[in-house]
Amino acid sequence: MSKKPIATASPSTPFRISPSTVARYFFQDCDRFLRFSAATPEQRTRDNSPTKQFDHSPLMNAIFESGYEWETYVLKNYLKKKAKIAKGEGELHKRRFSMAETHDLLRDGKPGTYIYQPTFRPPSSFYARFQIDPSLVTLSDNHPDLISVEVNEQGKRVFRVLDVKRGETLKLTHRVQVLLYALQLDEIIQDQGISDAQVDLSEGAVWLGQKDSPSLFDLDDFRPHLENFLRDDLSRILREPAKDVHWHLYFRCEWCEFFSHCRDEMTQEDNISRVANLTSYGKRHLKTEAKVDTIPQLASFLKQKDTDEILSRCASLTGQRPRLQKQVDALLSKRLELQDAAALAIPKGENIALFLTLQEEPLGKTVYLAGLLLQCKPEVGVKVLSQDMRAKLEDEKGRSKPLTLLACQPEEVTKLQSQWIHFLFKLLTQIDEFNRSISEWKDQVSLQAYIHSEQEKSLLIGLLIDALKKPKLAEKAMTLLFYFQAPELMMADRHPDSEVPYPVVVLVNALVKMFALPVDVRYTLPESLAALGSSFKYSRNDYYHFPFGDGMRAEAIHSVWRRGKRELSPEIRQRANLQLYAISALLRSMRQHASQSLFTWPPKFRLPDTETVSDKILSRLIFFTRYESLLRCLEVRDARSESREAQAFLGQVLELQARDEVRMAIVGDSAMEVDESGFPGWMLVDDDEDGRRAQLEYRDYLWRNKHWGGSGHPHRAIVGITQVRTNRLGLPSEITVDYKKPFSDVQPGSGDRLLLYPRFTDYTTDPIISFLRESVPSQGLFLDLLKAPEEVSETAMFSKPIENRLKQGETQLSLTTSQLEAYRRIRHRKFVPVWGPPGTGKTHFLASIILGLISAHADEGRPFRVLVTAFTHAAIENVLRKLAELKRTGSGGGQAVLGKAKKWHSPQLANAMIVEDKGIPSWLQRQQHAVLGSTVYSILKTYDELAETFDLVVIDEASQVRVSESAVPIGLVHSKGRLVLAGDHLQLPPIIAGDYPDTEPGEPVLHRSIFEAVGGSALHNDQIVSQLSENFRMNDYLTGVASHLLYGPKYQCFDEQVASRRLNLQLPNNASKISQACLDPDFPLVIVALEGIQAARENVIEAELVSILVSDLRQHLKTSSGKAYDSDQAFFKDGVFIVSPHRMQIRTIQQALHQERDWTSLPFVDTVDKMQGQEADAVIVSYGVSDPEFAMQEADFIYGLNRLNVAMTRAKTKCVLFLPRPLLDATPSVLDQPEAARGLAFMRRLISEVSDSAHNLTLEIPPGVKATIYRSSESQESR
């Protein structure tokens, strides 16, 4: 193999970058950081930029040294004799292979070996690949920690990049570095002609601290982001004049070498970075859209007439004019201002206040200090606590004193953890035992725990979780976790039997919500106390305080541990004691200033008991179900606690004017969705301060399952909505309410102003929890399925006569090849997950096999009963309708009786019975061959009478059904029956409120859907999962895109007729340019990237473009038979779907459509949730949102891959997708959310898929808006 000459280093360029600099850019999310870091000394002089101020403190040096020590440990203990290390003397981390040596090692490296610290110098092809100007910037020689040499299934060598990191968690910066190394290596081996090897660009690895093997991670989802940065952002940032490069100051900046420069600039120029908690994107928006740089400029801007409209185009600023005004006033006047929002977590008072602090050192990531301060009236302490406990928590005068534990050396950390947990357990147990001994509720005591920051709260939970692994601490740690509840409890084996709404209040969160303080950037504790006028003096000490961060700096404890300065230990304790007193003073000051904004009292203290269920999976499910209910309740309440103006902007309230007692005109401009179900999920209050207080004091969780909604109130009523009248745009204009709990005093009269809020209701959680506790056997199908789905999927045959009947009836069912394979598997196995991608006829398949099974059993004189359940009534009723249709056409199953539990939500089938919930058992007994369609909750009411009733249970939409709810139908499968889970994990998922930790390997994923929990790990195992692969809906191009990006090569069009479908449209020559470009039938998938628009929730220009397309489609689109659609109703049913992820954009599109033309029926524009399972000739998807910040707030909806997939795959022949450019060019902060990163990567891959330079277009759409239209007549694979 010939060697290619080694590329020489580039001549001097203005900028030089390294993989670590790029990784830091993604962490800092700051253009200025990249510009300053990359500048050469000469360029810094030209720019008048600052020099780097490196942190050479002993602590930082120790952090670096510990990293090198871990690298050495990995090499000597895990990779001994496997790793190639450059020759030399001294420390290993200083040895590096030269470029020539690296190339030789890449040529000759044997599988199973590793290359330690090779040298990479990217060849010119790397610069060309990413369109990087080599005269502008050079990627410096760089040195990945390890390259592993492996071999793939074809016997070809594969290089994988590994980073070695001392930390114990995988971070974004690790992903960036590993991928950038891999991209370089890919070009290097091609440049060097190393053809017998390839680079793994799908997976990278990090060897994390304390791990005995590297942790693999996916590169595919992240790769489009880094490539986009290299191709577009890098040159843009470096070419921009230094003074114009975007920057912002926030807490992460403390780790930046240019922090002091930016902080000084902020202070000297009175820059708007001073505004506390202003986001980077918010600052960018104010600068570009409002020309605001300074606090005085912001003050002037807030007085303009168009302020609200400009702010509304940025998510974090929407509806925030009053809040910003108060923040500016506070900074200018140097006096605090009260905000209009309430903090429901802060009670008016409590009998016992418990203040906590925990501090972590950065080297070992261990808690080295834990302290608490308990405050209560002396008589309460005497009554509740033991004398020994009071002696530890009170001084000789009976005053509260802190208890602070400090590990004076690393070896004492474990002892500290033990002492802390023992003491906290003993303290809370004494309070709990006192309350349990008092029968009178009024004589029991309340307790509220407080902590300063989210960081300390995380340390508290982490400390307790870690203690679960230690036998001597596990029981007490578990009891404490039962009270300090958090999502991490999902990973525990036991769980609490009740919920705790606010176990520990994070004071800084409440402070931000309730106050505007004259404090820069962040409400740090010393400055906040001073601004609140606290009598407690807590001065800043830079040795212990971060500039903007929370907690105590670790330099002091490092000096004690590593440098022998034991004399600092008392000082560290004293600083912790002062912090506890300061937290107490902070709460006291907040209450003094905001007493009128406090509305709640804490409950009487009780340590939750242990859940009685012994099985850990059931216990986890019970905790998850209850915790999700609580989180959803808190979401509703938190929305109601926002300021009145913010609520109106965010669509969280409906402003009403009474026409009479029950009819209310909608007078506000809100996008809040209302329905006329009559369900009492609403709270009607007076539009005044009394009404505000009434809704804030309402105890949603207590009354969550009570129809009447609690006790009466003169300013609050509980109502249902029985009628919604709409205007000509189809928007709600008037509602009629039904009082479930009327106002206790005067009822509304004509002209009265009122507000309508959602109230939290939950009628299902308690029954599901009771079911999981009492009715799920420890040795039954449900638990067996979660623990070992492969075993449950083992062979289960019908009798020979029935199997013969089934074989004979196969042809009558008209199944495709993959459907027939799935049908046979269902006949031969107890359990089968059926993966049904879009358009594969899942509903037809389910109905067909049900009729086939019923027919075979009926012919043999055997009974056969089927349960069909799903996440929605629509899915259940669709299967029943298909059953009735197939029966009529002679597809078998004529003996089957169809029934729907309780009621039909769509027009009722003439030949299907309605079965009352309580009558289900007797109805099934009377029917030998029956199909019952029912929700989980209907069959739950008579579950005990239905045990082992069903020969077949089908859970449709199983990818939307949560695991806990699925236990009910699964429990009804007969011991000789069968279970089918039909779903698609790439379509709509269940809505989950909590952010739960990753599931341990080998454990079921309980916080997702039953389809993912059972089939997730086996989705690509053909022996377990049956994938339906023939697509009846989408043409060849649309199917090819979905196949290539998501569903794999098996996913194909059913036949040539489906494949060749094209939009039956011929536009006139004078049609608009946007219609000609987007609706051309030769291009089935078109993506429109709009630039020059700022929009958060509504995008008027995009809505107008959508309306033009829809209008042209209505005029010229013909059905597949060549006929024009005979009505608007038919057109919006089968001709076009218009999809948008947000209500505000939906409303804007509806308005634009009505301005474009008159319609005889309302245009159908809705979210994707309303369209799953449906199809149309064309689908137009309008994201509207051009604000990545808003997209991040609603990442599951805006950046959700699943929702975009569902929207696109409704189309038979044409999909037009509007994606505003800012959504695609999101800042690196998007990548901190894995699901958002995955969705954004999918969007970018879509553009790559359809982009064809021969057909792409650019249109100028006034005023100043550019539309780049990506389209291709052939898929990327075909090209």
TrEMBL record:
SUPFAM superfamilies: P-loop containing nucleoside triphosphate hydrolases (SSF52540). The keyword Transmembrane does not apply. Keywords: ATP-binding, Helicase, Hydrolase, Nucleotide-binding. The keyword Membrane does not apply. GO terms for molecular function: 5'-3' DNA helicase activity; ATP binding; hydrolase activity. Residues 1007-1217 form the DNA2/NAM7 helicase-like C-terminal domain. This is DNA2/NAM7 helicase-like C-terminal domain-containing protein. It comes from Blastopirellula marina. The lineage of its organism: Bacteria, Pseudomonadati, Planctomycetota, Planctomycetia, Pirellulales.
